[in-house]
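Support request, please re-run this one:
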Amino acid sequence: MKKNEYRLLGIMSGTSLDGVDLVFTELNLSKATNFKIIYSETIPYSEKWQNRLKNSSRLEPAELNELDQDYTKYLSEVILKFIAKYEIDLLDAICSHGHTVKHRPDKGLTFQIGNLPKISSLTGVPVVCDFRVQDVELGGQGAPLVPIGDRMLFSNYKYCINLGGFANISEEVEGQRVAYDICAVNTVLNQYMRSLGKDFDEDGNLARTGKVNVDLFNELNALKYFQKTPPKSLGIEWVDKYVLPLIDSYTLQVPDILRTFIEHIAVQIAACLETSSASEILLTGGGTFNSFLIERLRSYSDGEFVIPKKEIIDFKEALIFALLGALKLRGEINVLSSVTGAKMDHSSGRIYEP
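Re-run finished. Output below.
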């Protein structure tokens, strides 16, 4: 008989390079799945780690292997400090996404570092990880993976939108979950703030002072990705190849870049929504704290954008990776083919014992 109650750590590192998100949660999968976030924390990356991860997609295989080894050790240390700080015991598993350095599903490739077997021996706890690879092997995008959690934990919303390194959306359509990446968000906004020595644009205040460059705005919206139909997903390589060179081909001040890009984000997200004033749209991810972005988004849609409590904004993805891990431990479906385009629904991830 399968157990229903799990004590889990969910671990997530996103492309915006904010840091490692950790959630200690108790999940009950008996009927309607419910959860309780007991402890949560983001461990910011040092400047050294930010630079190593930012440049990781360009590394040669030997260098990438070394980074994988180092990052697995680093991630294990972060996890052990979190467990010690909050005196956590009786863990069923650590459920870790790792950090994406390559994502080219069109080439049959996705690679997340920090998912080596030694993460289990270093932490002394069973680990469920490496959730994306199997889906790509089955012809899927390997992303997004969060929508099954949207279905099981947040089904009362018409749409779930995460504003992280990229914006992604999830919704139920005729009994099937549909989800995809919309556009870049913090991967671009934070890149230009770092050129000013800051990690992010607090409340979007600098963007608010800028002006929309209409030509750049139109060129951004004309990128081929936005004409594709789902399933589709984005990786940092797409930003490096298409978005940043396009922006840099214009000689603009940072406030104007931010202002133009926020307008682009708002337009692209609004284009994905079919809403009425009764439609509730859950917003999560770091971009939710950019009040100017939220203002511009609201100006393009009549739906009700719901901003939940801070722990859900910050840690929804880490929470859902804990859920993915629990489903994998139970041998149950945790990746939906309707979302990723894989040949079939499946139970994805690798399980390592200490």
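The chain is about 40% helix and 25% strand. The mean pLDDT is 95.
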